[in-house]
Amino acid sequence: MQPIEKLKNRLSDAIEQIELSLENKFEKRENEASTESIISENLNLKRQVDNLKDQLENSNKDDEANLNFENLSAELNNLRAEREEEKRELQSLYDQLSSALAASEETV
């Protein structure tokens, strides 16, 4: 009976090794699937980061454009104020000239 027992033990050991091998292959496939999933998720996150960077850059450009617009608006307001002051000065000079001409006509 010993040869049969040895054969049973060898078959049992072989079956255990086959089972372990199958488990290892299954775990390896699960790991590969997990790795692929992680890689895919990582690529999606990289795309999201790139999109956020683009949005931030565009936001900065918009802020810069708004600042430039505000500066130009302030400069325009200053130019308008200067023009009004020049108009008042010209009106004053015109009034003085008009008065001087009127006075000179009276004396002639």
Please render the helix and strand layout as text:
Layout: H1 2-107
Structure description:
It is built from one helix and no strands. It is rod-shaped and about 155 Å long. 0% of the residues are buried.
Based on the model shown, name its key terms:
108 residues; rod-shaped; mainly alpha
Looking at how many chains there are and whether they match, the oligomeric state comes to single chain
Compute the number of helices: 1
The tally of strands reads 0
Q: How much is the average pLDDT?
A: 89
- The share of residues in helices is over 70%
Short description:
By secondary structure, this protein is mainly α. Helices cover 98% and strands 0% of the residues.
